[in-house]
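As practice, study what follows.
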Amino acid sequence: LRSAAGVWGGLVQAGGSLRLSCAASGFSFDDYFIGWFRQAPGKEREGVSCIESRHGTIYYVDSVKGRFTISSDNAKNTVYLQMNSLKLEDAAVYYCAAGPLGSYFSVEGMHYWGKGTLVTVSS
């Protein structure tokens, strides 16, 4: 899994937008769902959003509902996380991860992890 934070990297002002991408290889979206986690300094890694492409199932943690949108391009084996109206508390290292269908959207349930992308939100 390879994640990236768009052309300008992961630095954005509060209220701004950023799109993260996660390119997968070596497995099919038919067998795995893709999720985004984030971890801020001193905090536990938390699940932010996930998508199961076969049935179009999507989940968002309450703190990002209405601001973040997850989507997938199955032809490119890529999942995107569009983040709008970013807040200071959204700053974290964002990880994309893949979990087998049927497993829980949790740190323990994911099989493959990307290296992480730093998202910095400035005031």
Remarks:
- The mean pLDDT is 90.
